[in-house]
Amino acid sequence: MNPHTLIVVTGPTGVGKTAAAIALAQRLGCDIINADSRQIYRQLPIGTAAPSREEQALVRHHFVGFKDVAEAYSAAQFESDVLALLPSLWQQSSRVVMCGGSMLYIDAVCRGIDQMPDIAPAIRQAVKEKLRDEGLAALQEELRELDPAYWSQVDLKNPSRVQHAVEVCRQTGVPFSTLRTGCAKPRPFDIVKVCLNVEREQLFDRINHRVLRMMDEGLEAEAQAMYPLRHLNALNTVGYKEMFAYFDGLMDRETAIARIQKNTRVYAKKQLTWHKKDDTMNWCRPEDLLATVDNLLSLRVMESAAEPPAP
Q1: What's the fold here for domain 121-179?
Q2: pTM for this entry
């Protein structure tokens, strides 16, 4: 048994991950690594439900509000940054909690990201200009021609993923999908993954009320401040897209709020579908997290003790 353990607390948006992870980290006496791809941006605390200053004062958080929305960041960079940070955290505690709902960020740390070639600035600029001038549909069509296998799998509505795949295809001259091994990289620490969940009706009710609370806390003003930067990938996010459509006169305010609630519920279902495919995932209700982790850690100790000594 490895002396160091990364405890991943994940689950659908709105389920109560932050509060549960803080309680767990307080029990274990360790830090929290944030694994939310939008909470990393300092200008978006309300719309991303980032941990508040009060919550961060209870337990030290890493990777919250440390980037500007104009700065590029990726799951591969997150993997590198977390692996570089962990050795210093192990010196303080043998356990570290990683909390978030971004599936790719979690997989990047737990399984690793395939190494991709550096993209020449000229290629990156050319693809960026094509997206700007001809639209996402044109990039989707190019990806279909260059890599039909990946085209059939990728979220075609995600500009950054389509753009990246086209860049790699142009850079290497081979389909992006042929460079994706899907093989997990070994990690020098144990990993325990727990997905929090509640009944679907309760989850959706929590989501609907949280959106209303975000509006009361100032989501509209936060989105208004970001409106001039709405072309940035960081703002291609539920909550901001709908507010931008409201600002553009494409829908009224009440419709925008209802659309945020609906799209958040859709995203929550996508997260659950993703995690259900992971046979290493453990499941529990938010209020049962502490007991569940205690049991999982105790089980690992017993399994380790039962193993025959190495020859």
Answers
A1: Histone, subunit A (1.10.20)
A2: 0.84
